[in-house]
Design a protein that fits this description.
This is Putative short-subunit dehydrogenase-like oxidoreductase (DUF2520 family). By secondary structure, this protein is an alpha/beta fold. It is about 45% helix and about 15% strand.
Length: about 250
């Protein structure tokens, strides 16, 4: 397929390279930042622009990979009625693209992306929504060319998936950052926790998360919990977070 990417961030970068590797042609990259558009376009052997009015009009699909709060504004400036316009957001509904567009959809890759780290896109679940059967078929064809896991997901389902992903990924990573800071204060290396983190992640590949839960809260080890709280007395925000998480784990046993 011939594709125009609108956006030059993490998702656009990884998605663009995955699509190109699968044999699709990236015609053009648009970004509000011309230098960012050029940087991604050069790596994809594509044209680039920072003007919506200068978009190539021959693409089969136009993919918006931009911040959620910019989707509606950029979509409203899109000029090619009848063309397929999709966004890659997990939380934005399909109607954010505009009710006047007959051919629209969502192409949501369920993964965390950083430009500095490569991702095997074949393992990334792609969650799709389309405004009609033709769009759904086209998105399924595109998705199947780069991913082994392709699923339909309504706007409501994606909202639930995105909240779950924030808990599983973003919050977990923030907790890693807190752990790193706690260790650093004692002159200890965060790498000490890496085997523990790896084993915890590996367990949920075969066990239900509740069955894999360990630690003082699930054991009802109140003495350890109180020691931890005392250690955190100098950091009341962390102490409050620790208490909240501990109570949530205790509550999960009921």
């Amino acid at each position: 397929m011939k594709i125009v990417l609108l956006g030059s961030g993490n998702v656009a970068t990884h998605l663009g390279h995955a699509l190109k590797t699968a044999g699709h042609e990236i015609l053009q990259v648009w970004s509000r930042s011309l230098s960012n558009a050029q940087q991604l376009a050069d790596s994809l052997s594509a044209a680039f622009t920072n003007e919506i009015g200068a978009l190539n009009n021959t693409a089969d699909i136009y993919i918006l990979s931009i911040k959620d709060d910019a989707i509606e504004e950029v979509a409203s400036s899109f000029l090619f009625k009848g063309k397929l316009l999709v966004h890659t957001s997990g939380t934005a509904g399909i109607d954010l693209l505009g009710k006047e567009w007959a051919n629209k959809g969502v192409f949501y890759p369920l993964q965390t992306f950083s430009k500095q780290k490569g991702v095997d896109f074949s393992t990334v679940p792609l969650l799709l929504e389309g405004s009609n059967e033709k769009v759904v078929a086209q998105l399924n064809e595109l998705a199947a060319s780069i991913s082994q896991t392709v699923r339909p997901a309504s706007s409501e389902q994606r909202a639930a998936i995105h909240v779950a992903a924030v808990f599983a990924c973003n919050f977990s990573n923030h907790l890693y950052s807190i752990s790193k800071d706690l260790l650093a204060k004692e002159g200890l290396d965060f790498k000490l926790l890496l085997p523990l983190i790896a084993e915890t992640a590996a367990k949920v590949q075969s066990l239900d998360p509740k069955a894999a839960q360990t630690g003082p809260a699930i054991r009802g080890d109140q003495a350890s919990i109180e020691k931890h709280k005392k250690y955190l007395e100098a950091s009341p925000d962390l102490q409050q977070l620790y208490t909240l998480m501990t109570n949530s784990i205790i509550g999960s046993k009921k």
